[in-house]
């Protein structure tokens, strides 16, 4: 039955007719991450749900996410309500509890969603049954629609939207995610991993700053994260002590990865080949030379987190800013000199300084800052200056 469910999901995803390049390049509606916080709950507790939904093809427009859940199998044998998803082929049924398969429930819309299993889930098991600690999984489904669905409208008003989803005129994506449910003590439960630092070509990207990448060549990228939690697993041979792995999946708005999925801390390294080599199947450099990079991390027990970074494709022809003076004036950082419009951003104390070029005064001005300034340029030179 589980195998059949997997085939149905594949069919649903295929029906969305997403014309992707590599899966790591995001150009249209995509859900690339789903998180439950916390990722492991006791029966009766609630996990908040969130999705990393991207839709560059509809920039500035609202998409819609429907959240559904399936009642889990208390025996942990995979015989929950999500064993048969045939009826979900009709998206209009998602808003009608009476038309959903037994055991599947609508649990939220957009950012307002939470998952919980019945407090009596394990009542069918003896009090000392080890399956209470081993737990089971509850399946969560997010159904993303590339449209602002007005849920206060009548069913007959919503029907044309759902017909366009079925006919693929409106893009959609169904994503399955699992939340662990157990009676494991709080201290031993899983927690979502946390993204730490991104490095590009050996340089740590300061907090809030833009990653600098070179077009047409490989730019080495690496990520650090925590925690690599320790946990115990019961096997036929007894209890095993294990340490989590954390895997990062890379996504970008343009460019290509040499490896788009790696285990953090392994010997396998990734690089982002900057856009600009269209003849060899890469993307053109964006007109404004800007793009986005997403890192989605998953631990080996189902925890998940992510972070977005902005990138800039270096312009080797850009003029080099000449910094004549750096001053703090009325609580503001003021740079004077020439070619200051070629400053991409300014960093101080390893964090971005909010500011920008002012053509009226031919100065770069930003928030007050102390210590040495790191002036990052459109040509990807990094200049160091002190007040």
Task: Describe it.
The chain is mostly beta strands and 387 residues long. It has three domains: 2-188, Sandwich (Immunoglobulin-like); 194-313, Immunoglobulins (Immunoglobulin-like); 322-385. The chain is 8% helix and 43% strand. Strands 1-3-6-5-4-7-8-2 form an eight-stranded mixed sheet. Strands 10-9-12-18-16 form a five-stranded antiparallel sheet, with no helix packed on it. A hairpin with a 2-residue loop joins strand 9 and strand 10 (203-204). The chain starts with a helix and ends with a strand. The model is unreliable at 1-19 (pLDDT under 50).
What's the SSE blueprint?
Blueprint (H helix, E strand, L loop, with lengths): L1 H14 L14 E8 L2 E2 L4 E9 L9 E7 L33 E6 L2 E5 L14 H4 L1 E10 L9 H12 L5 E10 L12 E7 L2 E2 L6 E3 L4 E9 L3 E6 L2 E6 L2 E7 L3 E2 L3 E3 L6 E4 L16 E10 L4 E10 L8 E8 L2 E7 L4 E6 L2 E3 L1 E4 L4 E5 L5 E5 L4 E4 L2
Strand percent estimate: 35-45%
The major beta sheet can be summarized as: 8 strands, mixed
Mean pLDDT: 89
Poorly predicted spans:
1-19
Instruction: Give the CATH architecture of the largest domain.
Output: Sandwich
The general outline is globular
How are the strands of the biggest sheet laid out side by side? 1-3-6-5-4-7-8-2
The top level CATH class name of the largest domain: Mainly Beta
Class derived from helix and strand content? mainly beta
- The CATH topology of the largest domain is what? Immunoglobulin-like
Number of extended strands? 28
Distance between the termini: 68 Å
How many discrete domains? Answer: 3
Percentage of residues in helical conformation = under 10%
Tell me the radius of gyration.
25 Å
Q: Can you say what the CATH homologous superfamily of the largest domain is?
A: Immunoglobulins
Number of helices: 3
């Amino acid at each position: 039955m589980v195998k059949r469910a997997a085939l149905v999901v594949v069919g649903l995803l295929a029906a969305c007719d997403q014309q992707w390049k590599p899966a790591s390049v995001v150009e249209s509606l995509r859900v690339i991450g789903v998180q439950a916080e916390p990722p492991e709950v006791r029966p009766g507790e609630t996990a908040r749900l969130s999705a990393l939904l991207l839709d560059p093809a509809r920039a500035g427009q609202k998409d819609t996410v429907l959240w559904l859940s399936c009642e889990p199998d208390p025996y942990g044998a995979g015989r929950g309500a999500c064993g048969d998803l045939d009826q979900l082929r009709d998206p209009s049924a998602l808003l009608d509890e009476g038309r959903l398969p037994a055991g599947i429930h609508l649990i939220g819309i957009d950012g307002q969603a939470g998952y919980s299993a019945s407090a009596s889930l394990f009542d069918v098991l003896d009090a000392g049954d080890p399956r209470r600690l081993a737990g089971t999984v509850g399946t969560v489904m997010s159904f993303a629609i590339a449209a602002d669905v007005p849920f206060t409208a009548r069913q007959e008003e919503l029907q044309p939207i759902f017909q366009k989803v079925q006919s693929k005129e409106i893009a959609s994506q169904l994503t399955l995610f699992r939340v662990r449910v157990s009676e494991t003590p709080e201290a031993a439960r899983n927690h979502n991993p946390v993204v730490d630092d991104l490095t590009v070509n050996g340089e740590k990207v300061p907090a809030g700053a833009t990653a600098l990448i070179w077009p047409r060549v490989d730019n080495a990228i690496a990520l650090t994260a925590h925690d690599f939690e320790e946990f115990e697993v019961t096997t036929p041979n007894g209890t095993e002590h294990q340490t989590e792995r954390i895997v990062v999946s890379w996504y970008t708005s343009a460019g290509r990865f040499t490896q788009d999925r790696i285990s953090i801390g392994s010997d396998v390294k990734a690089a982002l080949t900057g856009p600009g080599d269209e003849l060899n199947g890469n993307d053109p450099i964006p007109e404004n030379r800007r793009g986005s990079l997403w890192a989605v991390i998953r631990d080996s027990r189902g925890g998940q987190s992510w972070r977005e970074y902005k990138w800039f494709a270096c312009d080797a022809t850009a003029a080099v800013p000449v910094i004549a003076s750096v001053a703090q004036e009325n609580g503001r950082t003021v740079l004077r000199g020439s070619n200051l419009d070629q400053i991409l951003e300014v960093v101080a104390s390893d964090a971005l300084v909010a500011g920008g070029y002012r053509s009226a005064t031919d100065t770069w001005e930003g928030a007050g800052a102390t210590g040495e300034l790191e002036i990052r340029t459109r040509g990807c030179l990094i200049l160091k200056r002190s007040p």
